[in-house]
Design a protein that fits this description.
The chain has 319 residues and is an alpha/beta fold. 33% of the residues lie in helices and 18% in strands. It contains 10 helices and 8 strands. The chain has an 8-stranded mixed β-sheet, sandwiched between helices. Helix 2 packs across helix 4, helix 4 crosses helix 10 and helix 7 crosses helix 10. The longest helix has 19 residues. It binds zinc ion. The site of zinc ion has 6 residues, from helix 4.
């Protein structure tokens, strides 16, 4: 996969992708591959905007970027603002929601990822990667007729205590919870050595199992937590990302990420053999990732985009 051209500039001070791509790209690609658009979004969010700390001007810029992208599609787009207190300071953020509505049903699937980041690094892995994959998937599915609604939810202020996802889940009506087939969370897709999907225990893991089946058919090396660490049984993971508030409501969840469960404390936090954890460090930027892990960024974006797109269509076969 090679040089990508940006279709249009949307945010003030947009970064020129072609200049940046001289860092790590190989040959010119003859056509667009799955993951190429996700890559463009990743460049805009990390190099065009930069770190996107909750409540900051940059977080607002990222939100505007996502809103603008969703409005190009056949979606109902809304912003859900919320306030929260962090270290005695009142702060404000918002979720962005794009609804792909099927007027014949109220059944829905929620696909979510946070768009804020910490202040160090540029939040490429954590979590512009997931925003890019969801935006590309939303475009790929835009004209598809599916027997459920899909709500693409971009959460604000995850890094300050899952603020956006907590707020979203708290404001779901009992009816909406009952109509939710599942919630698929994406967080930190680039840096990790291996790609994973997690889910709930037993039958509550059916979305995870479907993702594993799809990956196997497509020869994508997606795996699940091997369960080396008894605190996180095989197939599951911890409650440290935006799936947690939905899981707490009894909704079936699945969660996609890249990391390495065999390293460090075997808790999924040590992402790479070569450099340990990348998230929340200055190394979480595209230049570093492309230099130290050539090809990994494009490969993971391609794999996760393919998996998520097929998962959202194949869920209908399981209902
Ligand atoms: Zn994250």
């Amino acid at each position: 996969m090679g040089m990508r051209t940006l279709k249009r500039a949307v945010v003030a001070g947009v970064f020129t992708a072609s200049a940046f791509l001289t860092v790590g790209s190989a040959s010119a690609a003859p056509k667009k591959f799955a993951g190429d658009l996700a890559y463009d979004h990743l460049v805009q969010l990390t190099e065009g905007i930069g770190p996107r700390v909750a409540g900051s001007e940059n977080e607002t810029k990222a939100r505007q970027y996502i809103l603008n992208e969703l409005e190009k599609l056949d979606l109902e787009v809304e912003e859900q603002s919320f306030n929260y207190v962090r270290r005695n300071v009142n702060k404000q953020s918002a979720n962005v929601v794009g609804v792909k509505d099927n007027p014949k049903t109220n059944k829905q699937i929620i696909v979510g990822a946070h768009y804020d980041s910490v202040s160090v690094g540029k939040g490429a892995d954590d979590n512009a990667s997931s925003v890019g994959v969801i935006l590309e998937t939303a475009m790929a599915l835009d004209k598809r007729n599916l027997p459920y609604d899909i709500k693409y939810v971009f959460f604000g202020a995850e890094e300050e205590g899952l603020q956006g996802s907590n707020y979203y889940a708290k404001n779901m009506t009992a009816e909406e919870v009952a109509n939710t087939i599942g919630m698929i969370n994406l967080d930190s897709l680039l840096a990790g050595d291996n790609i994973y999907v997690y889910g709930g225990d037993g039958e509550d893991g059916w979305i995870r199992d479907l993702a594993l089946k799809i990956a196997k058919q497509r020869k994508i090396p997606l795996q699940t937590n091997p369960g080396i660490n008894p605190e996180y049984p095989t197939g599951t993971t911890g409650d440290w990302s935006d799936h947690a508030p939905f899981k707490a409501k009894g909704i079936t969840i699945a969660y996609l990420e890249a990391t390495n469960w065999e390293l460090g404390d075997q808790d999924g936090y040590t992402q790479t053999e070569k450099h340990g954890g990348i998230w929340h460090t200055k190394n979480d930027n595209l230049a570093f990732l492309e230099k130290e892990f050539p090809g990994r960024t494009q490969e993971h974006l391609n794999q996760f985009t393919n998996i998520l797109t097929q998962l959202l269509t194949d869920i209908k076969k399981e209902l």
